[in-house]
Amino acid sequence: MAKKPTEQPLQRSGKAGPSRSGPKRPRRDAIAELPSREQILEAMASEPDVKGKRDLAKILGVRGDMRTPFKRLLRELEGEGILTRTRKTLRITSALPAVTVLDIPSDADPDDLHAFPATWNEEEGEAPRVSVLQPPNARVVPAPGDRILARIDAGEELVPHYTARAMKILDKPRRGQIGIVRMDEDGARLIPVERKQKEMRIPAGDLGDAKDGDLVEVAVKFSGRMMIPRAKVVEVIGNPATEGAVSLIAIHNLDIPFRFPASVEKAAEEVKEATLKGREDWRHIPLLTIDPPDAKDHDDAVYAEPDKDPANPDGHIIYVAIADVAAYVRPGETMDREAYLRGNSVYFPDRVVPMLPERISNDLCSLREGENRPSLAVRMVYSKDGIKKSHSFHRIIMRSAAKLSYQRAQAAIDGNPDDQTGPLLEPVLKPLWKAYAAMAKARDKRGPLDLDLPERKIILNAEGMVDRIYVPERLEAHRLIEEMMIAANVAAAETLEKHKTPLLYRVHDTPSREKLTALREFLSSLELSFDKTDAVKPANFNRVLANAKKAGKTEQVSEMVLRSQAQAEYSAENYGHFGLNLDRYAHFTSPIRRYSDLIVHRALITALNLGNDGLSQNETIKLPGIAQHISSTERRAMAAERETADRLLAGFLATKIGAQFDGRISGVTKSGLFVRLLETGADGFIPASTIGQDYYRYVEEQQAMIGDRTGEMFRLGDTVQVRLLEAAPVAGALRFELLSEGPRVNPSSYKRSGKRPSRSYGPKGRRR
């Protein structure tokens, strides 16, 4: 807290202290010098009748030529949040609490952080600027763009100089409420993007420049005795219909930066292409990229050849080259700060929000066919059984021999090469597949979690709406690239640990005891068992999945196994990757789209003396904070991608109200059932009050709703038929009616002890 001044007031001629008629006028012989900040605050604290700058000037003897610089000094104090002006009255600003939530601006200097209070009464004037201290061994290390809980020190001086020590990095709340404007005969209304929020009227005078279909941010105000909420447009964000970008809603709802500042674009344009200086020349090695057919940036290339070392018979040498983003994006510079703020690229069906400007991501760093590109590469030697014998990292210039899609590479291996893949088949593709076959042996022996869930892909038409949805075929080419990327990631972590260089790990914790207990109870209801051991391994889950497949219960068990897993994240401390069954793992292979990988590249450059653009000491100190931030931006990206898919699918199905669909129960709660449609993957909800002709009790251990009287059961993973009753495209919400009947069980076996709810449901779910 800022201390209230206790010193004696300035000594002036005449009587001290205030009078009822106002402040005393100074004597004519008062010194007409510009007072200091401390003198101004001291005078204001000791003269409670001071109302404005005129009173203050009289008390301090300011006159003549000193008046203009005096006014300027007062404005500076206001601008710094030390003084507050209400109309013509000046007063000392309230002090910050000892513990305060602060927001660090996204454009703050990482080496000299400052922040402002997250909440501030505008009547107090400008929010005070707070210097954020960054001690070397701090447990919490904030960065630009973070919101922090901090301990505040105002100092001992009369003019408070606030400093803060971060106690915790907080998740930022979503921005103000946003929605779509819909014009009607009575004026306009707001269709909220949040499913739980209700529509609001927009008074005519509060519409601003918004038009029908515009996505807007609103302030909510209440009117009348009934305190009816009404919306006032404060910003027009855009029009998803005319811009053809449904993702615009999620981008703004989750505060995802999607336009690069001019300074970042300028910095990208000014970058000079990397040369061979200080690098190894690998342009003779026919590395090639294998990506989705619509990929625009290519950040990894692979090649394999037989190992000619007699000590490694039938062994393989595998090369993985990764775009050298660190060559262009330097620590602390403009592009680096923006990349950190974004944390990762975000992929939508209708657009990509990249982490780096196009000049970097799609040009200088993209491993284009036939063009020289700087890379950070790893050379790995494997035995015929897929055991890694050694590896080494190299900073290189490479030239991609070919740009292939998964489908074309797989077709060539399957005996259907084309004009480009035909000449590559014997010298490049077959050695790659042989090396992968060896790696697959070791992978199967290692036993990572074998939870291969299909992912649907949404294809849009020219208007930006859903054209079709399909599940891409899972090819061996996909697994080959995945396995080689995993191997490169492990090699990076091992090298950095060996050199005792701090790094960011990609970690995945062991499932919690509570989740394992819930899984065992659920499996027991399906007459399946789970090993009773405290040292649970992925192999335990794989056995359950294999048994479920034999029993025809793959969907139910896969869904529950997925729910039992912890969420992967980034950490400066290593606790292994449970899902991959690896002791150490780091993300190294996608620096174009993940900030974590850029950090690992810089760490390798520093550890191996590969250049002067490696991990700085300042970044090393901040690794815990960086890990927390990019874990948060990753979760934000996943939420945005999921929200956008939900909105696109809800819009696609909005014309099919009343149609019947096959689906699978994907979630069970007290309030009802979540159902995922088999054909489109769209998710919808069935309220508990509309299920069947009974009162349905939620039985957690069964992950089921069970009728009290009939024993009818609807359980996680069950296939059901539903009718679409309602679609809300803006909110991405669907409501279904359940048409199927469930199997019967003995209801008394599942009734919990205690008082039964007083309500019950009659035919068609109507309460009686």
TrEMBL record:
Protein's cellular compartments: Cytoplasm
GO cellular component, one term: cytosol
Xref: Gene3D superfamilies: Nucleic acid-binding proteins
One family name in Pfam for this protein: S1
Keywords for this protein: Cytoplasm, Exonuclease, Hydrolase, Nuclease, RNA-binding
Region named Disordered: 1-34, 743-768
Alphabetized GO MF terms: exoribonuclease II activity; RNA binding
GO biological process: mRNA catabolic process
Domain S1 motif: 658-739
Compositional bias annotation for Basic residues: 752-768
EC number: 3.1.13.1
Main location: cytoplasm
Catalytic activity: Exonucleolytic cleavage in the 3'- to 5'-direction to yield nucleoside 5'-phosphates
PANTHER family (UniProt xref): DIS3-LIKE EXONUCLEASE 2 (PTHR23355:SF9), RIBONUCLEASE (PTHR23355)
Protein role: 3'-5' exoribonuclease that releases 5'-nucleoside monophosphates and is involved in maturation of structured RNAs.
Family: Belongs to the RNR ribonuclease family. RNase R subfamily.
Entries under NCBIfam families matching the protein: 3_prime_RNase, RNase_R
Protein name: Ribonuclease R
Lineage of the species this protein comes from: Bacteria, Pseudomonadati, Pseudomonadota, Alphaproteobacteria, Hyphomicrobiales
GN (gene name): rnr
